[in-house]
């Protein structure tokens, strides 16, 4: 058994916007790249182009089609990595102390030198956020890019997790969720951010912003035809504007 800190000075974590995530997997690739080249042993890949590819990924994106009670089906892309829980069962279950939560910023890490690969932490995590690296024989998980966020050799704008830095949709945000005035805390308050499976009692630090209600057109707007009128009919609409603009070139 491994103890958790009684409290942490900060609660660093991610806020992930399910409304704007487009499921591009850029965050998955950026995570894999950074964490293969830097903290700990490389993230393995075996038989990458063969019949049974296997790999270790600290961040995965799942895609679902869901139908709200009153509405049309929507596709939701759901990125998932460690949520750096306040009451992390993956830490308390660890027999060697390899899994630990940092008192200074709340990040949950694995000390690979002390990990015996027993897998108990993976069983204890209700989110499936840990990955046993089959090649290295040690447990891997999201580190919140602890080797980027404090790294003074990087430009200030790069001192955030690789997934956040790379997301082209601006769907990922990083900051101190223990500070009610931080940008991420205000975002969570404004958008009604939620915990993943709060009934598990793990008190995840990461938050999700739920998809917003979609507008649905029942009929095309009346002025849509005018918008598309060719320029020969009074130089109206968007196409007319485009024609005039191109004529000047
Ligand atoms: S990079 Fe951003 S938009 Fe793309 S899958 Fe990840 S969170 Fe979603
Ligand atoms: S998400 Fe899972 S691995 Fe991460 S801190 Fe919570 S219980 Fe541990
Ligand atoms: S696999 Fe490693 S980190 Fe996980 S419980 Fe066992 S010793 Fe601890």
Write the layout of secondary structure elements.
Blueprint: E1 12-17, H1 26-37, E2 45-46, E3 54-55, E4 60-66, E5 74-80, H2 89-92, E6 99-101, E7 108-110, H3 120-124, E8 131-133, E9 138-140, H4 146-149, H5 162-166, E10 172-176, H6 183-191, E11 207-209, H7 224-227, H8 237-247
This protein binds iron/sulfur cluster (SF4) (3 copies).
One iron/sulfur cluster binds next to helix 1 and strand 5.
What report would you give on this structure?
The chain contains 8 helices and 11 strands. With about 250 residues, the chain is of the alpha+beta class. The chain is about 20% helix and about 20% strand. It has 2 domains: about 10-210, 2-Layer Sandwich (Alpha-Beta Plaits), CATH 3.30.70.20; about 220-249, no CATH class. The strands form 5 sheets. The chain has a 3-stranded mixed beta sheet with strand order 10-1-11. A two-stranded antiparallel ribbon has the order 2-3. Strands 4-5 form a two-stranded antiparallel sheet. The model has no long low-confidence stretch (mean pLDDT about 90). One iron/sulfur cluster binds near residues 21, 26, 27, 169 and 172.
In angstroms, what separates the terminal alpha carbons?
A: 73 Å
Strand order of the largest sheet: 10-1-11
Note poorly predicted spans.
none
Please tell me the overall pLDDT: 90
Which range best describes the helical content: under 10%, 10-25%, 25-40%, 40-55%, 55-70% or over 70%? 10-25%
Q: How many strands, which pairing sense, and closed or not: the largest β-sheet?
A: 3 strands, mixed
Number of helical runs?
Answer: 8
Shape: elongated
Structural class: alpha+beta
């Amino acid at each position: 058994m491994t103890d958790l800190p009684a409290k942490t000075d900060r609660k660093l974590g991610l806020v992930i916007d399910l409304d704007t995530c487009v499921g591009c997997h850029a965050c998955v690739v950026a995570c894999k790249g950074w964490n293969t080249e830097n903290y700990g042993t490389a993230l393995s890949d075996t038989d990458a182009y063969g019949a049974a590819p296997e790999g270790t990924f600290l961040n995965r994106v799942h895609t679902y089609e869901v139908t709200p009670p009153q509405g049309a089906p929507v596709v939701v892309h759901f990125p998932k990595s460690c949520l750096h829980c306040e009451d992390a069962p993956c830490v308390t279950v660890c027999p060697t102390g390899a899994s630990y939560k940092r008192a200074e910023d709340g990040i949950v890490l694995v000390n690979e030198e002390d990990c015996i690969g027993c897998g108990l932490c993976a069983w204890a995590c209700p989110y499936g956020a840990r990955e046993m690296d089959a090649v290295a024989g040690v447990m891997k998980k999201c580190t919140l890019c602890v080797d980027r966020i404090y790294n003074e050799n990087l430009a200030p704008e790069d001192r955030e997790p690789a997934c956040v830095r790379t997301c082209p949709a601006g769907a990922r945000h990083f900051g101190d969720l223990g500070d009610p005035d931080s940008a991420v805390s205000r975002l969570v308050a404004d958008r009604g951010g939620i915990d993943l499976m709060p009934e598990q009692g793990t008190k995840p630090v990461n938050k999700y912003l739920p998809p917003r209600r979609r507008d649905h057109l029942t009929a095309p707007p009346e002025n849509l035809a005018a918008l598309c009128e060719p320029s020969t009919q009074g130089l109206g609409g968007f196409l007319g504007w485009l024609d005039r603009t191109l004529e000047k070139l």
